[in-house]
């Protein structure tokens, strides 16, 4: 992995006031893709040839999968067909993705989320940190892969195996994020309060994705996700 790369712009929320709006600032609003896309772009620019080839293979597999699903449906798209269209072997597909569900649920931003969270300003409230991280992730995916994002949400709604796998992967993501939040707040890695807090936020993100897909994308996904964070900031008061 390349050395950690800083974005040229100052990360949002890094003003003297650590509780400042994490969505404000030049880095969060300097492009439609947002901070996370810029962060990943700077990071990828320093990858070696081997890592660039891995990234290209992973991308080819994902694009082949989405194209096949669009053409013939989720169940009918086989790993053998995906491998053929991505110009790789079936064993290569499984080397990058454990299951077909993982192919449609994983995107290129997943690996850098922990890195970005660790670099949030010291003293920033955990909810503000997660709000920044997750809304920037949504902005990046929506800007770069809008149709794939819709297709993924549709599959989450319509295919039980995809929804079940999403629940599993979000639990894994929640656990990883909770360890970083525990580090940032001086708590033990398995602190129950941190685990429950992080799981609640990720659970809200899951419901926002399902809600968006169920309603045929009539609302902007970022708006739906921000509504979830607004609810948390009101103390979950209805």
Automatic annotation (TrEMBL):
**What is this protein called in UniProt?**
TetR family transcriptional regulator
Q: Which UniProt keywords apply?
A: DNA-binding, Transcription, Transcription regulation
Positions of the region Disordered? 1-31
Per UniProt, residues of the HTH tetR-type domain are 55-115
Q: Which InterPro entries match?
A: Homeodomain-like_sf (IPR009057), HTH-type_TetR-like_transc_reg (IPR050109), HTH_TetR (IPR001647), MftR_C (IPR041347)
Q: Which regions of the protein are recorded as binding DNA?
A: 78-97
Indicate, by first and last residue, each region the UniProt record lists as having compositional bias (Low complexity). 7-31
Species classification: Bacteria, Bacillati, Actinomycetota, Actinomycetes, Kitasatosporales
Which Gene Ontology molecular function entries are recorded, alphabetically?
Answer: DNA-binding transcription factor activity; transcription cis-regulatory region binding
Any one Pfam family match given in the protein's UniProt record, by short name = TetR_C_14
């Amino acid at each position: 992995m390349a050395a950690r790369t800083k974005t040229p712009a100052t990360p949002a929320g890094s003003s003297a006031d650590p509780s400042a709006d994490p969505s404000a600032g030049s880095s969060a609003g300097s492009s439609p893709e947002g901070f996370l896309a810029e962060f990943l772009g700077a990071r990828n620019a320093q990858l070696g040839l081997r890592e660039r080839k891995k990234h290209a293979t992973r991308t080819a597999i994902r694009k082949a999968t989405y194209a096949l699903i669009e053409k013939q449906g989720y169940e009918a798209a086989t790993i053998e067909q995906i491998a053929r269209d991505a110009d790789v072997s079936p064993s290569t597909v499984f080397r990058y993705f454990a299951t077909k569900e993982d192919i449609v649920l994983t995107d290129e931003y997943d690996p850098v989320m922990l890195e970005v969270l660790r670099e949030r300003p010291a003293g920033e409230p955990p909810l503000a940190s997660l709000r920044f991280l997750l809304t920037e992730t949504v902005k990046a995916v929506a800007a770069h892969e809008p149709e794939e994002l819709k297709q993924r949400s549709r599959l989450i709604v319509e295919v039980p195996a995809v929804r079940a796998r999403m629940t599993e992967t979000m639990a894994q993501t929640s656990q990883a994020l909770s360890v970083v939040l525990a580090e940032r707040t001086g708590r033990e890695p398995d602190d129950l309060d941190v685990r429950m807090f992080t799981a609640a936020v990720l659970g809200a993100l899951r419901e926002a994705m399902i809600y968006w897909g169920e309603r045929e994308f009539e609302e902007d996904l970022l708006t739906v996700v921000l509504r979830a964070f607004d609810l948390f900031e009101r103390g979950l008061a209805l």
